[in-house]
Amino acid sequence: MIKNKSHRKGFVFKTYEAPNQSPFDKLFDIFKELITHTSGDFDEAIDWLRELDKEYNLTTPEYSIEDFIEDLKKKGYIREEIDNDGNGGMAITAKTERAIRQQALDQIFGKIKRSGQGNHKSKSPGIGDEHTGDFRNYQFGDALDKVSMTESLKNAQINHGISDFTLSEDDLVVEETLHKSQMSTVLMIDISHSMILYGEDRITPAKKVAMALAELITTRYPKDTLDILVFGNDAWQIEIKDLPYLKVGPYHTNTVAGLELAMDLLRRKRNTNKQIFMITDGKPSCLRLANGEYFKDSVGLNPTIMNKCYMMAQQARRLHIPITTFMIAQDPYLMQFVREFTYANQGKAFYTGLKGLGEMIFEDYETNRKKRIRG
């Protein structure tokens, strides 16, 4: 007699077990977060790490904070530095800056699957090197390496027969390819005082997004360009390596100065596709006048400043430069300004708050890169 064996199918749930990390790696992950929040201040980050250690027992008798600092030195993540006053101290190195950018990328875009060589594909076929699977008849001027020999030989057999094989120009077919383009992006970051007002730290998420975007472009789209600028009373360009040290200042918000610099940077680029990403809480409150003086108004939205912003948005539109605004404040009157600004540019706006900011910027970057190249 054969007994029927029943097999249970389903899911098996287990208690979550954290990845097995070394004591150094465990502390280093936390340290990278802290150094971002402290704008690169090593001593302050270590002070915070000691406080967290007291509360959460991060270290052991075998591996202390001092051991961790010593390993940071040995591994080249920190170095001794003497300031202008002759005082010695520790500072992070370029190796740490890269590690911070990579961590930001992993946190924000970690679930994104990388495809192929990771270069932009325009929607219209043409001269390029990404195969589409579609074929067309050979035309004079087509490169010979684009001729599909398999399909061409098949056509020759069909058209002339196998017994008397002949290959003519009419038998040749070319496989369509997608043109790989380049994208020039300027990322504008608002560093006005309002970015840390009301008990909300808006600048750290903005920094992390900028670092992640920089790492994404330099590793996945190396042919693309990314320029980063910050704007307060004025606007100025910063390097990728400066991002961890970025701080909010006692500034008003000169959005116009930021847009002027962004468009000036993009005018110098030869790439056809250009765009501006702007992270802001949406309240322009400053203009620099022709005589060099500043016109400031922090109460509400000043019509003079607003109209100048709209003019800049229209100018960018005429230059075929779309502006995508990532609005991280929720005030209705500020959101209305962003809507009108976006309409003037025919760009886009995301009213994201801080949560999901990175994912939205990534998705928009990817979407913009798939648009057809002008000209």
From TrEMBL:
CDD domains: vWFA. It comes from the Bacteria. This is VWA domain-containing protein. The lineage of its organism: Bacteria, Pseudomonadati, Bacteroidota, Flavobacteriia, Flavobacteriales. Residues 185-283 form the VWFA domain. Pfam families: VWA_2 (PF13519). It comes from Litoribaculum gwangyangense.
